[in-house]
Design a protein that fits this description.
4 helices, alpha+beta, six-stranded antiparallel beta sheet, 287 residues
């Protein structure tokens, strides 16, 4: 299987994608909680974020030291949790389909105990709020539409694939990571670091599988501080989002007129480049 090239984004059943996203958003909390409990706490919750692993098509948490070094990951397409050691050998795997969150947490706790970790405080205590999904209240995970789960995995794959080279064009940029709070994958481009997050100018560049603003996946640019709206030029592809936050958005449906995966990638790349050019000129005119 080609784990590098752009995956074609063609599935237009947004209702099925929404159902899949909500379950995966809940499931990813079980992966991130391992880093949140067993790694040194970092102010921005970085210890609990995840990285896309193209080789296995999974979202993987940070490495943790137990009796052996290991990490926990979520297979989005197959709705399953995996533990691997630092030689990428499988330690344990758990199929979430038909299982409740409580059952999967018991299994994960047993795995961690087997790796020599103290599980006395092992629980999902999030420092943020997530949508109130039924799976958080005893409803089993289910995969009625496997195609929707696979498609969401492809969105994460494609975002990681295109963001890595893009963010390298800027000397100060973070790694491409998935943040379990909003379940998006993104990098942060720092344009002018003042040492204060409120005054540091930056641009978040990423992909959301959907949220309260758009019930479909979308690629986005999120600047800080917000630039002057009256100076923003309409995008060739995508649009400027102005409700509750200001940024550029390219929704999934904006790609469905393209059959060639390479041309889909070109459109997303052009969207990012056009938005970055505008935002950089406003946030850091001398760059």
């Amino acid at each position: 299987m080609d784990t590098i090239a752009w995956k074609p984004l063609t599935y237009q059943n947004f209702e099925a994608l929404s159902v899949a996203r909500k379950q995966l958003h809940q499931a990813v909390q079980q992966v991130s909680v391992v880093g949140r409990i067993y790694l040194p706490r970092v102010k921005d919750d970085k210890h609990a974020n995840l990285v896309w692993v193209p080789q296995f098509q999974r979202l993987a948490g940070n490495w943790v030291e137990g009796s052996t070094k290991f990490r926990v990951s979520l297979d989005l397409a197959n709705l399953s949790i995996h533990l691997v050691d630092d030689e990428v050998k499988t330690i344990g795997e758990y199929d979430l389909k038909g299982k409740t969150q409580a059952q999967s947490m018991v299994w994960l706790e047993e795995q961690l105990e087997g790796l020599g970790l103290d599980t006395g405080q092992f629980a999902i205590n999030l420092p943020y709020e997530t949508p109130d999904y039924p799976t958080a209240h005893g409803k089993p995970f289910e995969q009625k539409d496997a195609r929707a789960f696979e498609e969401l995995a492809w969105y994460f794959h494609n975002a990681d694939h295109i963001l890595r080279p893009l963010k390298r064009e800027f000397p100060q940029s973070t790694d491409v990571r998935c943040w379990p709070h909003h379940f998006d994958i993104a990098a942060l481009i720092i344009l002018n670091d003042t040492g204060d997050p409120e005054t540091t100018s930056s641009i978040g560049i990423g992909m959301s599988p959907g949220d309260q603003f758009y019930d479909q996946p979308y690629f986005y640019l999120s600047p800080w501080p917000y630039p002057s709206r009256d100076k923003l030029i309409p995008m060739s592809h995508g649009k400027w989002h102005e409700k509750d936050w200001l940024g550029a958005v390219l929704t999934a449906e904006s790609l469905f007129d393209i059959e060639d995966p390479a041309q889909q990638q070109k459109r997303v790349y052009a969207f990012y480049k056009e938005g970055l050019d505008q935002l950089v000129r406003q946030l850091k005119p001398n760059l």
